[in-house]
Specification:
nine-stranded antiparallel sheet; glycosidase; GH; Glycosyl hydrolase; alpha+beta; nine-stranded parallel sheet; TIM Barrel; 4 domains; 12 helices; hydrolase activity, hydrolyzing O-glycosyl compounds; globular; Glyco_hydro_31_TIM; single chain; Immunoglobulin-like
């Protein structure tokens, strides 16, 4: 007879002293007396992986987050020991593992300065309800330490003093500080004493992060199950930390087609066909550039995925072709919920092949979404992803749709308290069967992955374009993203600014907000200010719900329409600059948007700045985020910067007032920059142009800029058919030199550069191109001086007597 029904609460458990150590090439194993094992792997000189087991055994080593293409290998590895520590030394790091407690401390190998140190370090709590462990890690928060990253959290850029939860959630009309929302990216970057490191906690269970909130000198992270498995990534430059994390979790597999970087228009919903055509015709009539039009769920037959409502769209193939002839790519939405309907081929096939998620005891996972009651494919199963990718053949190959937008893939379920699947739903998890507690945060990622492979297959030889709402670390390999269902308020404009910066710091640069706000109706002033910010986000799309009125650029009156046109034209002029930044992102894992702390971490004033950011390498942007503003105070980073509108040169390293009427916003160009610009087009590929501009901003000294180009679609660039032009600027008091070096086999259609010279401090008395003197008649004098030269020049030399 059982008389004691009280559960013994053991509380936190800790490793005891190390009793065994062994080394296997790049991996070290430390075993404690109470059978805890630390598996320490030197991934790179600056990247160390820490993986803990409380049972002496490790599960199958599998990760959706870490890419197989991640860089590996180190230059130096030495393991020594003293009385109290095992000491692992690489060329970048010294890692000490304490013999008595398994606690870890990490130091800069060059100067011996402490970078990161366990507080009580790894500990765990047995989970009576689910089995296994709640795994925990606590670190000492160093003096003046600041924290950044963690994906789309709607808070200021610096996370110090805050606590967060990672559980991807459909958060309609979320607000500032709402947590969790749509993405789970368990990676943060830290900086103290001008040294930066990052931690990627690769655990897909519900995770939590506390950045010195509960205790001001302790930062901690923990998960509701799985392993304590994290990567320590050292800089000491923050940009290197972000680049190494992005390399670890994956860069985009391909450049986007250039049209995907244009302006996109979306609404819930454009239908019937006549409405779609009316919207696209108005863009062309008003000469507002636009490359893509989106169809939300109403294009489907009863919200059944991969179908068309023939009442609204009687001949989708014809319509898509006519839109494309007018320069519009068609992007359609696809959700994960498959309507329960035996007459519906997609449902019947998935049912027959047993591709739907099931509850623990066998019944299918049933949930209400837009079509009504639905079953949901298990995208963590390879066969299901392969089947799903095949479903896109008709949409892409036959009808001609150019992009797919994955929504509701958290997964979102209506009319249930947790807005998603119950914990007991089972998933294949690529052969590592598990419950929804483990698979929830990667469900949307795996749907996006399957969608990407479908589009890659059926768009070939063109490049795929996919958007996802839900994401886990590594999703940037496959898709772009947006920040979910925001609201038409000034607060949300500021939130969108912070989210885009934070996503770029979290390895996911191809991101943007619903410009103007999804819920509620913006005033014209707010819409104009949001457009001004949105054209500097990598993904640039207006989107709104259909229940509050129209949100096209022309519905707010002529003044706002003109402002929108002006800024969208700037977006299109800067496309070669953005395309170059994207190439740099793919090749060097460089974030396209840089918070000021990422741009100049040595300047302490940047550590708490949230509004300003650097776009690419040379453009400083600061949105106006409040109504009735005629300008704002902003922080200008160190160095000299040109006002984009006036060419006034300002000295940075300080805060200053910048005028910005409604038709303007604070934009500055770093001195020495060479900014490539296209002529204005109504859509990518509309015009064949003979020349492009190079806006050159004089600097006394040296600066380097780049211009990447290729066919703007397809994969020939991977075979060397690209063009990478490096411009080296040298400015002196009475002399100016612009040198060009070109790599790659691609030859763009344009023949000339119009070199526009900003703030040249001397009068030009002679000009040489490739050591040949040319007539001063070639200098055009307007507001600024310019000269048109052959694009294959190697050196432009300007002199003053």
């Amino acid at each position: 007879m059982i008389v004691n029904t009280e559960l013994e609460q053991k509380g936190n458990l800790f490793p005891s002293e190390i009793i065994n150590y062994k080394k296997d090439v790049d991996t070290l194993f430390f075993t404690t007396k109470n059978n805890v094992v630390l598996q320490l792997t030197v991934v790179r000189d600056s990247v160390i992986r820490f993986r803990y087991s409380t049972t002496g055994k490790f599960d199958n080593d599998f990760s959706y987050g870490v890419t197989i293409h991640a860089s590996r290998g180190y230059n130096f590895l030495e393991v020594t020991e003293d009385k109290t520590n095992y000491i692992i030394t690489t060329s970048k790091l010294i890692c000490k593992v304490e013999k008595a407690s398994l606690q870890v401390s990490l130091y800069d190998a060059k100067d011996g300065i402490l970078i990161n140190q366990d507080e009580i370090g790894f500990h765990w709590e047995e989970s009576y309800e689910y089995g296994g462990d709640i795994v925990k890690m606590s670190k000492i928060s160093q003096k003046a330490e600041s924290y950044y990253g963690l994906g789309d959290k709607p808070v200021d850029v610096n996370l110090k003093g805050k606590r967060f939860e990672n559980w991807v959630t459909d958060s309609y009309a979320f607000g500032k500080d709402t947590d969790p929302i749509y993405k789970a990216i368990p990676f943060y970057t830290s900086i103290h004493h001008n040294k930066s490191y990052g931690i990627f906690f690769d655990n897909t269970f519900k995770t939590h992060f506390d950045f010195a909130q509960e205790r001001r000198n302790v930062t901690s992270f923990w998960a509701q199950g799985g392993e304590m498995n994290y990567y320590f990534i050292y800089g000491p430059k923050m940009e290197d930390v972000v680049a190494n994390y992005t390399d670890l979790t994956g860069k985009p597999h391909a450049l986007p087609p250039l049209w995907a970087l244009g302006f996109h228009q979306c609404k819930w919903s454009y239908y019937p066909e006549s409405n779609v055509k009316e919207v696209t015709k108005t863009f062309r009539d008003l000469q507002i550039p636009c490359d893509a039009i989106y169809l939300d769920i109403d294009y489907m037959d009863g919200f059944r995925c991969f179908t068309w409502d023939k009442n609204y769209f009687p001949d989708p193939k014809r319509m898509v072709k006519e839109l494309e002839d007018d320069g519009f790519k068609t992007v359609v939405i696809i959700d994960p919920g498959i309507k329960i309907d035996l007459e519906y081929d997609v449902f019947k096939e998935a049912l027959d092949k047993d591709y739907f998620c099931k509850r623990a005891d066998g019944p299918y996972m049933k949930g209400k979404v837009w079509p009504g009651e639905c079953y949901f494919p298990d995208f963590t199963k390879p066969e299901v992803r392969e089947w799903w990718s095949g479903l896109f053949q008709e949409l892409i190959e036959d009808i001609g749709v150019k992009g797919v937008w994955n929504d509701m893939n958290e997964p979102a379920v209506m009319d249930v308290p947790n807005k998603s699947f119950p914990d007991d739903v089972r998933h294949d998890y690529d052969g590592n069967r598990c419950s929804h507690r483990k698979a929830h945060n990667v469900y949307g990622m795996q749907m996006a992955r399957a969608t990407y492979h479908g589009l890659k297959k059926y768009s070939y030889p063109k490049r795929p374009f996919v958007i996802t709402r839900a994401a886990y670390s590594g999703t940037q390999r496959y898709t772009s993203t947006w920040f979910g269902d925001n609201v038409a308020t000034w607060e949300h404009l500021a939130i969108a600014n912070n989210q885009a910066q934070r996503m770029a710091m979290s390895g996911f640069s191809f991101a943007g907000s619903d410009i103007g706000g999804f819920a509620e109706q913006p005033q014209g002033e707010l819409f104009a200010r949001w457009i001004q910010l949105g054209i500097f986000h990598v993904f640039c799309r207006v989107h709104s719900s259909g229940d509050h009125g129209d949100q096209e650029p022309w519905v707010f009156g002529d003044e706002i329409t003109d402002i929108v046109r002006k800024f969208v034209e700037i977006r299109y002029q800067l496309l070669p600059y953005l395309y170059t930044a994207f190439w740099n992102h793919i090749n060097n894992a460089t974030p396209i948007l840089k918070s000021l702390v990422l741009f100049d971490q040595e300047d302490q004033h940047t550590h708490y700045r949230s509004d300003e950011f650097v776009y690419g390498e040379h453009i400083l942007v600061c949105p106006i985020q409040e109504p009735n503003a005629k300008g704002r105070r902003m922080y200008i980073p160190r160095g000299k910067w040109y006002n984009f509108w006036t060419d006034e040169v300002v000295e940075g390293g300080k805060e200053m007032w910048v005028d910005a009427e409604l038709d303007s916003m604070p934009i500055f160009i770093k001195e020495g920059a060479v900014i490539p610009k296209y002529p204005v087009q109504q859509y990518v590929g509309e015009k064949d142009f003979d020349e492009i501009s190079l806006d050159v901003y004089y600097k006394e000294g040296k600066e380097k800029s780049q211009l990447y180009d290729d066919a703007h679609d397809g994969y020939d660039y991977k075979k060397g058919r690209y063009s990478l032009r490096t411009f080296k600027l040298t400015g002196k008091k009475n002399e100016f030199i612009l040198q060009q070096h070109k790599q790659g086999k691609f030859d763009a259609a344009y023949k000339k550069f119009n070199v526009v010279l900003h703030n040249l401090p001397f009068t030009i008395t002679s000009v040489q191109v490739d050591n040949v003197e040319i007539s001063l008649d070639n200098i055009q004098n307007g507001g600024t001086q310019s000269i048109t030269i052959d694009k294959e020049f190697t050196e432009l030399h300007l002199f003053s007597k």
